[in-house]
């Protein structure tokens, strides 16, 4: 006669939880995009904490935050290429203007012409 086998308790199944924080497609920061679902108004709001990008889409009872995020990605891909080129050119122009405003500083912390007087007039011969 053998001992009766004990019965184990069944393992609890882990519930799969979908994220509500995502990576931003514009500034590329990780987990900086929050999605909030307003089920009463049937609207999903998405916003990036870093760059301030915002998006809003309609939702239904079956929608999840990942659905609002995927709608945002799809909407960003359908932007006209001319608009994207114009935005990129504007960013390049602003970078050139920024580089003109700043003075190059040597590793010692002073500008290369520290202590020298600037003469904007023509040099005397």
UniProtKB/TrEMBL annotation:
GO CC aspect terms: transcription elongation factor complex
A Pfam family of this chain: Zn_ribbon_Elf1
Keywords in UniProt for this one? Metal-binding, Nucleus, Transcription, Transcription regulation, Zinc, Zinc-finger
Report which residue ranges the record marks as coiled coil.
Answer: none
Q: Which InterPro entries does the UniProt record give?
A: Elf1 (IPR007808), T_Elf1_sf (IPR038567)
GO molecular function list: RNA polymerase II complex binding; zinc ion binding
Matching SUPFAM superfamilies: Zinc beta-ribbon
Q: What does this protein do?
A: Transcription elongation factor implicated in the maintenance of proper chromatin structure in actively transcribed regions.
State the PANTHER family in the record: TRANSCRIPTION ELONGATION FACTOR 1 HOMOLOG
Protein name as annotated: Transcription elongation factor 1 homolog
Species lineage, top-down?
A: Eukaryota, Fungi, Fungi incertae sedis, Mucoromycota, Glomeromycotina
């Amino acid at each position: 006669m053998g001992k009766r086998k004990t019965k184990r308790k069944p393992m609890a199944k882990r519930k799969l939880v979908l994220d509500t924080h995502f990576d931003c497609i514009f500034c590329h920061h990780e987990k900086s995009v929050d999605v909030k679902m307003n089920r009463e108004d049937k609207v999903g709001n998405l916003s990036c904490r870093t760059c301030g990008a915002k998006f809003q889409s309609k939702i239904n009872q079956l929608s999840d935050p990942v659905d609002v995020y995927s709608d945002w990605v799809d909407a960003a891909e359908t932007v006209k290429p001319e608009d994207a080129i114009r935005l990129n050119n504007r960013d390049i122009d602003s970078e050139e203007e920024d580089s003109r405003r700043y003075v190059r500083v040597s590793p010692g912390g002073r500008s290369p012409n520290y202590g020298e007087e600037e003469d904007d007039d023509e040099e005397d011969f």
